[in-house]
Amino acid sequence: MDPALSAVRLTVQEAIHTLSSSEDVGHILSTLGTLKRYLGETENPTLSEKEEFTTTHFSAVLRCLVSRLSPGWLELSPDGQLEQLWESFFLDGPPDQAFLVLMEAIESTAGPSFRLMKMARLLEIFLSKGRMAALMEEQCRPQTKPSFPLFQETLLSKVVGLPDLLGNCLQQDNLTQFFPQNYFPLLGQEVVEALKAVVNFLQGGLDCSVSFVSRVLGKVCIQGRKKEILGVLVPQLTVLTQDSCLWQRVCWRLVEQVPDRAVEAVLTGLVEAAPRPEVLSRLLGNLVVKNKKAQFVMTRKLLFLQYQHTTPMLQSLLGYLAVDSQRRPLLIQVLKELLETWGNSSAVRHAPLEQQCYISKAILVCLAHLGEPELQDIRDELLASMMAGVKCHLDSSLPPVRRLGMIVAEVISSRIHPEGPPLKFQYEDDEMSREMLALATPGPADACSSETGGPSLASVVTETPVEIPEKTVDSDVPSVQPQGSDSELDSDDEFIPYDMSGDKELKSSKEPLYIRDCVEALSTSEDLERWEAALNVLEGLVYRSPEATREVSVELAKVLLHLEEKTCMAEFEQLRQRALVAVTVTDPERVAKYLTTQFYGVNYSLRQRMDILDVLVLAAQALSRPRSLQKLPQHGPPGCGTLCAPALASSQPGNAAAPDWQVVVEERIKSKTRRFSKGCPQRELSGGPNEFNSVAGYFFFPLLQHFDRPVVTFDLLGDDQLVLGRLAHTLASLMYLAVNTTVAVPMGKALLEFVWALRFHVDTYVRRGLLSAVSSVLLSVPTERLLGDLPDELLEARSWLADVAEKDVDEDCRELAVRALLLLERLKDKLLSISSP
Amino acid sequence: MAALFPPPPGPRFVLRGTQSPVNTLHFCPASQALESPLLFSGSQSGLVHIWSLQTRRTVAALNGHRGQGVTWLKTLPQGHQLLSQGRDLRLCLWDLAEGRNTIMDTVQLDSVGFCKSSVLAREQLCWMLAVPGKGSDEVQILEMPSKTSVCTLKPEADAKAGMPMCLGLWQTSSSPRPLLLAGYEDGSVTLWDISERKVCSRIACHEEPVMGLDFDSQKAKGVSGSAGKVLAVWSLDDQQSLQVCKTHELTNPGIAQVTIRPDHKILATAGWDHRIRVFHWRTMKPLAVLAFHSASVHCVAFATDGLLAAGSKDQRISIWSLYPCP
Predict the structure, then answer these.
(1) Weakest mean pLDDT among A755-759, B9-13, B171-175
(2) Which of A332, A771, B53, B202 is an S-S bond match for A816, by CB 3.0 to 4.6 Å?
């Protein structure tokens, strides 16, 4: 053994002995001073002696120092010299050992005590002096000695687990610096500092390894702290990598070295944090091509298995794939797979709406990135999957899914046949469709501007506030101009025009005056004006002459049901529906019988069958309402409240419908009048007998009879599930409207059986209908009868509901199930409160 | 954009009870003779109803036209004398002072047409009356109350103007010469100089018979409506010649009457399409389309305080309060 090294050992042993036993300040100080020399820059102890001390004996010295720590010991030197010296050992010595000893000491110290707090404060200083960066830098340095994997592992877990450990030890007394939300940003900053040192080494020609930092990063991300650490790291790396290839290489290396199991967490975090595809590309390099795991995460997991990510994130992910020519084949591959999923009918039926939306967006972003020649190469495949996808999307009973199909198909077809006539669907513009279409337009201008602007940190910060005033100016322009041109000299402002949209051309008066004339005009008339006039006045006529209507009610219903739109009447559908409802209300028994048998008839279109259902519900609603309300022109369902006041007024001259101003006046009176007697204003209205009572059966039971017996043109359990969904909703509404009627109990029983038969239906819309049916049974059937007559059904329903509430893919279904469960719960409470007193 | 505009208002109140289509309306402001503002309405059954705008009830019904429709009503400036023209070929002058409802005088008319007369007050007790004359295309000017015929205005034979359909007597504040604006069956509007008995100017501004006109002497501009779809605005220059300034296309044809509000800010039209239309007078910007009546609107009238009344074939009189006078 080298004599110099054994001398060091002797000195250290002696010092430890002195420190652990001596109470003499001077002695202690001088001993510490001796040891301190090994850490200093001076020449006196040789380099090898220093190294021997730091590698072999330093931890032992630190442990001894920790063990001596007590208030009395520190106060041996009243001027604080001892304390300073004591601290300096931890702050100046090799950071890894100091850190480990500190953590070890904190962990082993029990309870709130002076020593624990002292250690914690020291750790705080340790962190604030940037020693953590030094620690990581140390680990990145070319290792001269064989490294101990176990040692690095321990260090790693302590570095990452610091907030947890400290939180556990200090409990209430934890210092803010150790809270995860403060610690991890700091760690991010320290990582940047460590990487800066690494870059310096590399520039100096030294070999370095960033694997320890990668592991730290990976571990932090796995622990779910990626936002905190990457929120600090990514912006700085964005700036640093901008002009330096060396920095880029360090970054790539950093990500490559992340252990496999942390790749997903790190990549997700990076994609989330990177503001633009170019930045992501600088940070990751061609990682997806090199690393299988990364490729899996980027091209499958983030796109197909998860769908909670934001649209900007999708854009930067797919943009990253598009930026480099080596990655472009991957983008094409991704597009193909996305389209395959998009066109998969089972996926369309079973996947939640949010996921379908996510995939559609991803497709649109892909298309925006791909160029003309690339698309032409895979044109046939695109076309095939598009056709399949459109078909199963349009088959769906959910309007948003249908709309997704339309939007995506429009965009695909416009990209693969740019010169041909565009495919155009009719769908209502809403926020989602606008957002999707905006995604589909390739935005080179946008990308350029952000790139040339120089993504320095400062410009990233200022970018947003600069854009906002521009936008407001833009939006102001159109509103300013008309004002300028309109106001000539004096104030026209006092003359604000009223809405004049009701100013339509007046039809010549060919209105039939009798029901029979109407029937004749509608069924045979070649005179289109008379036909329109007849349709316009029919509802009013029916309500004014119920007797005459009853004579021809079924015939009239038949005519109306088969009525086709001969001219372009603005409100044909509503007029026809309102007339049908009026007839049904006037003669419920016969017309309802007729309509319900026709529902299962052979020669009807789906549209007509659904019309039948709508009419039945609206008529039931009108019937179950008190008479006085029926005089108001509000026979419409809550959904189609587009009743046109002028049209109605012209259709019923004489007993003019209450115009808006009367309603306003009544509202105002109501709001100003204080009534002491009533709590809930709606109670007062329901005074009359429920006219639905006597006829509810005619509306309800025939609809239930044949649903499982398909005919040639109509198969409820097969392809026509849209109608089945409507049927379920209709039955639910009828059940709800039958509240307080005597048939409610058999109706409820039949309805629960119906629900039971269909409870595992694959279509979301049908399931929603069934769930609302259960709710309406619970609402309409009296509590004691429910328990007396339907206990088994209730139990079964309850377990099914619980299952749906937990597992259904559709959000609405889950919500409906929870509501039904709450109703059940309330029922239980009610029963308990009845039985207990 | 439609959502930006408020929905059209409803009427302030509605007067019912004429039990017959309302042909003509006239507001009478509160004056020394009458404590409260009144509204006169003439109905097709020959009655003139006097409505109190405070109680919203009829004060009296005047029966002086032997069951024939009343086509025109006007109070004289004194306030207690009312002129009513009926289809029984009579023009009655009523004395309404102190609760009397008696006919003071009548003028026999010779025309069976629908042309409304016009009156121009010249002095306290002297006024000029323009009525359709004996010949089908003539207009007769009478000096009242003496009933002396001043002249008969007859267009030249080759003009083929047809019957006069509406009349408007006026005079400028600078000169005492009375002028007459007459709308004819052929769609032309003619300006007559009464003292010289000659046509000053004539414009053909409509394809269909002119049904109503009103003139704003401050701006020297007038407006006329016809059985067709067009509302025409014309102006009068210093050489007493008429020029069409602007036309406005309506949704539905047929204007029964056009009235400019006394403060010259807005005007209203009575439409055969059951609607009352309100325009900004200077710019002719459409301001409102009031759809309340269920049959043709026959007449519109403004009170000096800005209240608008419309009478319709559906036997109702609707009272509106739009764009209040400052």
Answers:
(1) B171-175
(2) A771
